[in-house]
């Protein structure tokens, strides 16, 4: 990992450790205050525990122009961003996409092109609905590996991460605690429930927390929709298309709406926030990956709305192309953060239990 | 003077806790309020930016505070640290009002947090601000803005014109221009004069040039001096201040909390001649930190040196600067500019005076003491033997000065025995009305909040 990022984070963490005023904001500070010296692994864990709520920055008595020049959200964002590149498998893919929105857009276009090619080359004879454009078997042939490869890649990354931070062995309770913290986004509530500082300097609001949860739960609902449909297809001989009141449609439409609203609002909030409190060079990559996720949701909704029209084949190809790009890029873009964050939360629960014992 | 002076109901001079409490209270009473803050926006809030808690009386659990803390106990704590040099009537007013302040603070945006790690001894008496004092200041500026309070930054007040028994107008400079406003009421909440080292030197002599200023560089006492020159009643000894011993490597101004050193009770402290000068283990550190500023100020060159050994390194909160480290005492002395043979002799004498250390207990008075040396060390006295050895330099860090404006129970200022009909003062600029000497953690914010609210209420009533 880049030593200048680590050294800067270490310098700042040592100042924070002598102050402690921010202890109540989030999980980072109790974890930070439990150390006297900060190894690279400690800093990597603190960085991934940080949700970039920025409360500590706006409350800090040592931000520039003070000579101590603290900007902990930025220092940790840089380490965090760098750690995602360091632990990625393969690393070169993360270096290409993590900070680069244009590359994400290009990859999405390649995804579109691949699907167009597939639709032409593997055009199904006699399928119905979507399967008239691309047969079910062709879809499975493309998307099964596109789903399994990212999972395997992320598994390798998380293993590297866990080794680097030298966390102990988690118990089931630690894992539950980690999931609970992610499910409620407790670390974006500011410690007082008023939310975080993001879109309007030191004003606290729950906007970002709600928007983040819209994206997260929207995505999970969409994922659940696909999973349910897969089960229905294989185990209950109930192939698509499904009616409006079927489980896949209810999950998919509600999830798609949440996803689109969440992504649009997230980008709007991001545009109003101060980029200097994040990983400045990764801004384009972050917006690119949120945009891609939003497009997945939007094209999915359009597919539902316009599925009976002549535009369906084109929209289907765009949707599937975006999904393909999204899946394949997940380990190498901002989307990876969810896995690291969850792991960091579990590791923090493990640490707390260890410290208490 | 470019245009006709603006008129305001209430002008508040200063931009910290007391000023904001006054401004919000006056605005809520219907007054048109302007804040003249001399600092630029990033440094707004004066010393309040560096504070962290509010000492609060309470009957039963209140907000983050546990148990209860009665008026009598609070007053007794205050009398102990000030050695009785306290205006009891005003102190009781501050203490009694503190209880209703806490929910008021919450209503105006302040959020509290449980006592910070390393400060458990204050969990009952002091309510900690979430994010510290700058978090409080930010919340108050937000609320003040919502209440229609107008804020001018980098507005340095130079003069308040006395016109009979009232203030006629205020002159200030901003963007290189001199401006004037005509307020119906004025609240002065612009702090002490500690950032003006020339003024400190007039009181302390040249020694003051070696003092560090823990807080804002903007509290230069300009308004205070202007009012005192016009005969406004003053209070307090110019040498009295809240001063602590801080890391000698701290910046000249604005080092704040991170420059404090908590290691004195586990150390020996010597002066530049490598001689001990005070009982390092007299009491637990939260009860002694405020006297060490003056102790160090009395030493040659106003500097002290803390010496500990390896076994004590992790017994205190980490500070912002790493200690100086050496494998031998002579090596440490060399790095710190102390005479090595003298330091060796002092440590040897001290070590020889240590007795049974089996009862050592870092967080309570353990009675592990020296015998037969002067000064003694009456608690936590363990020989300094285990390398590596560590050292910190200590300097006097001034938080705020006590010479200020004398006020009555309405926070009103006076000339002779006559009140100035439209002038009130709050916060550090009048804290000398209550604190004769010594300091009680979190009491500055109590004075600022209580008297800021009183001043704001009175100022608005007068303007109406």
UniProtKB/TrEMBL annotation, chain A:
Keyword Transmembrane helix among UniProt keywords: yes
Highest taxon of the lineage: Bacteria
Species the sequence originates in: Primorskyibacter sedentarius
Keywords: Membrane, Transmembrane, Transmembrane helix
InterPro entries in UniProt: Citrate_utilization_prot_B, NarG-like_sf
Protein name: Citrate/tricarballylate utilization protein
Transmembrane domains' residue ranges: 101-119, 139-158, 214-236, 242-264, 276-304, 310-332
UniProtKB/TrEMBL annotation, chain B:
Entry superkingdom: Bacteria
GO MF term set: oxidoreductase activity
Keyword tags: FAD, Flavoprotein, Oxidoreductase
The UniProt record lists the keyword Endoplasmic reticulum: no
Domain FAD-dependent oxidoreductase 2 FAD-binding: start-end pairs: 9-436
Entry coiled-coil feature ranges: none
Needed cofactors: FAD
Official protein name in the record: Tricarballylate dehydrogenase
């Amino acid at each position: 990992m880049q030593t200048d990022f680590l050294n800067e984070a270490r310098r700042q963490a040592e100042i924070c450790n002598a102050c402690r005023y921010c202890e109540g904001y989030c999980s980072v500070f109790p974890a930070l205050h439990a150390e006297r010296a900060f190894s690279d692994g400690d800093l990597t864990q603190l960085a991934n525990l940080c949700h970039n709520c920025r409360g500590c920055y706006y409350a800090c008595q040592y931000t520039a122009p003070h000579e101590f020049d603290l900007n902990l959200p930025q220092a940790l964002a840089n380490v965090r961003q760098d750690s995602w590149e360091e632990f990625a498998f393969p690393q070169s893919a993360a270096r290409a996409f993590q900070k680069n929105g244009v590359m994400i857009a290009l990859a999405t276009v390649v995804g579109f092109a691949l699907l167009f090619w597939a639709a032409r080359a593997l055009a199904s004879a006699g399928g119905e609905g979507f399967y008239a454009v691309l047969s079910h078997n062709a879809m499975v042939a493309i998307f099964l590996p596109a789903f399994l490869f990212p999972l395997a890649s992320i598994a390798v990354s998380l293993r590297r991460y866990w080794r680097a931070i030298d966390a102990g062995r988690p118990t089931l309770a630690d894992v539950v605690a980690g999931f609970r913290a992610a499910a409620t986004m407790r670390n974006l509530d500011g410690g007082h429930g008023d939310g975080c500082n993001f879109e309007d300097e030191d004003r606290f609001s729950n906007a970002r927390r709600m928007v983040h949860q819209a994206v997260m739960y929207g995505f999970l609902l969409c994922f659940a929709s696909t999973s349910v449909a897969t089960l229905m297809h294989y185990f209950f001989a109930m192939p698509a298309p499904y009616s409006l009141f079927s489980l896949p449609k209810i999950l998919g439409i509600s999830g798609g709406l949440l996803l689109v609203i969440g992504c649009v609002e997230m980008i709007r909030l991001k545009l109003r926030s101060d980029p200097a409190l994040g990983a400045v060079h990764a801004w384009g990559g972050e917006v690119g990956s949120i945009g891609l996720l939003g497009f997945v949701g939007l094209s999915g909704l359009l597919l539902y709305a316009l599925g009976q029209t002549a535009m369906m084949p084109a929209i289907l190809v765009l949707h599937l192309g975006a999904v393909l790009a999204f899946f394949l890029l997940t380990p190498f873009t901002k989307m990876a953060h969810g896995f690291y964050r969850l792991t960091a939360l579990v590791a923090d629960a493990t640490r707390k239990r260890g410290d208490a014992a | 003077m470019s245009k006709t002076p603006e008129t305001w109901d209430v002008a508040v001079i200063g931009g910290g806790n007391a000023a904001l409490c006054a401004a919000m209270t006056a605005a809520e009473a219907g007054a048109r309020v302007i804040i003249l803050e001399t600092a630029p926006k990033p440094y707004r809030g004066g010393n309040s930016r560096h504070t962290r808690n509010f000492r609060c009386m309470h009957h039963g659990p209140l907000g983050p505070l546990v148990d209860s803390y009665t008026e009598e106990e609070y007053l007794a704590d205050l009398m102990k640290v000030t050695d009785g040099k306290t205006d009891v009537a005003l102190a009781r007013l501050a203490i009694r009002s503190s209880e209703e302040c806490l929910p008021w603070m919450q209503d105006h945006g302040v959020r509290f947090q449980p006592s910070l790690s390393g400060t458990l001894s204050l969990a009952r008496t002091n309510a900690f601000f979430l994010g510290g004092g700058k978090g409080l200041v930010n919340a108050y500026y937000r609320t003040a803005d919502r209440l229609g309070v107008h804020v001018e930054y980098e507005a340095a007040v130079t003069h308040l014109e006395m016109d009979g028994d009232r203030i006629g107008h205020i002159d200030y400079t901003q963007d290189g221009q001199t401006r004037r406003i005509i307020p119906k009421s004025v609240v002065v909440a612009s702090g002490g004069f500690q950032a003006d080292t020339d003024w400190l030197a007039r009181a302390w002599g040249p020694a003051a040039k070696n003092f560090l200023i823990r807080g804002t560089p903007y509290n230069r006492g300009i308004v205070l001096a202007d009012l005192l020159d016009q005969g406004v009643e003053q209070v307090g000894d110019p040498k009295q201040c809240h001063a602590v011993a801080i890391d000698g490597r701290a910046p000249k101004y604005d080092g704040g909390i991170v420059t404090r050193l908590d290691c004195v009770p586990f150390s020996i402290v010597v002066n530049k001649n490598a001689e001990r000068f005070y009982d390092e283990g007299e009491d637990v550190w939260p009860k002694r930190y405020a006297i060490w500023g003056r102790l160090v100020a009395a030493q040659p060159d106003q500097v002290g040196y803390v010496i500990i050994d390896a076994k004590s390194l992790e017994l205190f909160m980490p500070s912002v600067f790493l200690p100086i480290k050496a494998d031998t005492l002579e090596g440490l002395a060399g790095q710190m500019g102390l005479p090595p043979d003298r330091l060796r002799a002092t440590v040897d004498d001290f070590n020889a005076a240590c007795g049974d250390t089996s009862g050592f207990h870092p967080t309570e008075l353990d009675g592990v003491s020296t015998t037969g040396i002067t000064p003694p060390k009456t608690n936590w006295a363990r020989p300094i033997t285990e390398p590596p050895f560590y050292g910190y330099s200590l300097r006097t860090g001034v938080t705020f000065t006590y010479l200020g404006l004398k006020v009555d129970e309405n926070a009103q200022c006076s000339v002779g025995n006559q009140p100035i009909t439209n002038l009130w003062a709050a916060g550090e600029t009048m804290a000398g009305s209550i604190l004769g000497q010594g300091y009680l953690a979190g009491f500055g914010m109590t004075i600022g909040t209580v008297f800021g609210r009183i001043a704001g209420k009175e100022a608005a009533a007068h303007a109406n």
